[in-house]
Amino acid sequence: MSGGKFSSPAKIMFHVNVVVVILLTRGIAVGCVQYLIKDGGSTLLWSDPWLPGGPLGGHGVLLAEALGRDTFDCVKKLFHNGDIWENVTADLAIEARWAEVVNTKIHSRLPEDMAVWTPTANGAFSLRTAWDVVRIPGAKLPWCDLVWFPSSQLCFSFITWLACLRKLTTRCLLAQWGLVVDTACVLCQDGTDSLDHLLFRCSFSAGVWREVLHLNGFNRGPLGTWDEEVRWLVKHFIGCSIYSRVRRFSFTASVYKLWQERNARIFMNKCNSAASVLQCVLSDTRGVFVNFTKPIPDDAVNRAFFSGWGFDVSFVHPKASFHVWTPPPRGWVVLNCDDSVRQDRGGYGVIGRDHRGCPIFAVAGGARDVSIVHMELQAIKAALLHAKSHNLSHVQVRSDSMMAIQMIVGSFHISWSVRWLIEDIWRLRDSFSNCSFAHQVRETNGCADYLVSLVDSPMEISLCIDSLPLALSTFIQNDAGGKRYLRM
User: How many beta carbons lie within 10 A of that of residue 139, not counting itself?
Assistant: First the structure.
C-alpha cells in the first residue's frame, strides 16, 4: 500500500483473487443448469449438462477426433430412429454412463432442446436464486419473520433487524468502543442510551409502545429487556393473518420512529413529543393497510381490532356450501385422484367408478422426496395407466389440486421439474377416445384421500374390489347415495 492506493503487485493479486472466486462459482452454476432434450440437435454431447451427473465430458475424458470424440458433437449423435438411445460408436466414456443416458426423458413436445435454471420452478434464471445457490446460509433466527414479512417497509425492517442483532449504535455501545463519554438517554433524560433502555424501558418510548400494544389487543407495559420483548413478540405477533401483518408493521414502525426521534435530538437538535411519534407510527401503519380489500370474517373481535386502528374493511359472514360427488354419464368412468406429502415421503390414491358409483379399481402408491404437485401428477398418471389397463375408453380425471389440473389443460405455467410427467399424461390422454380433466373440492374426494393413507413406502398396491376396507366402502356408498358434504 502506498498513498492509499494499491501497489502494482497488490493490484495483480487482488484481481487474481476476484477471478479465482468467480471461477469457483462456475462449477456451482453448471450444477444448476440442465438441458431438456427434444431431439438433441442443439445440445452439445460432451460439454452441456444434459445428464443428472453433469457433463459427459468431465474430468479424465479426452476429447480427440482420433477417439471419435468431437468437441461439437451433439446429443443427437446418440439417437437412433429419432427417439431411441444407441451408443453407435461403442464409446467407453458413454458406456460408463449409459444408465443415465437411457433414463433421460425425451421431451418430444418441446419446440427444441431447452436449457433450464433448476433452482426456479419455471426454469428462468434469477439473481435471487443464484445468490441463494452460492451463499452459505445460516440457521434461520426465531425472530426473522417478525422483522421481514409481506407489506414490511425496508427501512423499518432494517433498523429493527439491527436492533435484534444488538448492532444499533447507541451511546452505550459507542462508549464501549471508546468513542463517546456522555451516555445519557436523550429521550427521557433519566437513563442511559442503551438498547434495553431505548426499547422500551425509557419512559418516552414506553408510552409509545404501550399505546401500540393496546391497539393490537394487548394491555401490558414493556417487559424487562429487549430480548424478552422480542421473545414475547415472536409468540404473539407472527402468523399469516392480516392481524399479524398489522402487528408486525406497527412494531417495526415503532422501533424505527423511536430511533429516528433519538437521532433527531442528537444530530439535529429537534424534539417531538411522544404523542407526535405515536401519531407517526399510526399514520404509517394505516397508510399501508388502508386499501386492504380482502373481506374479513364478521365477529366482535375483528370489529374491535379494525375499528381501533381505524381501518375501513369489509366484513362478511362465513358461508357454508354443500357439495356432492357427481357420477359420470353412462359409459364413462370417473377417476378420483389425491396425494399427500409428509416429511420425507409422498403418497397417492386413485379410484375409478362408473355411472352407478361402483368401483372398478382402487390403487394406493408411495414415493420418496417429492413435492405436492409432483405427487398429484403421479396420481393422475397412475389413474390413466390403470384405466388403460382396464380397456376404458371414456374417462374423466378429477383432482382437488387446481394447479395440477391447470398445468395439464395448459392454463398454468408448467414447472420444468414435472414437465416429463405432464408429457406422459398428455400421451396417455391422447390414447383414450375421450379424456377430460376437472377440479373438484376436497370434501367430495374422500375415497382417494383414504387410499393415500394406506401406503408409507415407495410401492404401489391394487386393492381387491370384492374386499375393500370398511371405511372405504362407506365412502363409496355415501358418494353413490348423493351424500352432501359441508364446505366452510
Answer: 6
Q: How far is C-alpha 48 from the chain's CA centre?
A: 28
Segment 257-277, tens digit of pLDDT: 999 999 999 999 999 999 999
Asked if 398 contacts 392 with a C-beta cutoff of 8 angstroms, the reply is no
Residue 232's contacts (CB-CB under 8 Å, 6 or more residues apart) are: 223
The full DSSP string for 371-398 is -HHHHHHHHHHHHHHHHHHTT--EEEEE
pLDDT tens digits, 18-41 = 666 666 777 777 788 899 999 999
- Encode pLDDT of 175-234 as tens digits: 888 887 788 999 998 889 899 999 999 999 999 999 999 999 899 888 889 999 999 999
Cis bond upstream, residue 432 (ω within 30): no
H or E element at residue 263: helix 242-267
Per the CB < 8 A criterion, the answer to whether 308 and 211 are in contact is no
Segment 482-487 long-range contacts (CB within 8 Å, at least 24 positions apart)? 482/324, 482/325, 483/324, 483/325, 484/322, 484/323, 484/324, 485/322, 485/323, 485/324, 485/441, 485/443, 485/444, 485/446, 486/320, 486/321, 486/322, 486/443, 487/320, 487/321, 487/322, 487/323, 487/441, 487/443
**Residue that the C-alpha cell 384405466 belongs to:** 387
What is the distance between the terminal CA atoms of the chain, rounded to a whole angstrom? 71
Residue 308 near residue 215, CB atoms below 8 Å? yes
Taken in order of first residue, the domains within the chain and their CATH numbers are 32-134 (no CATH), 144-316 (no CATH), 323-487 (3.30.420.10)
pTM above 0.90, yes or no: no
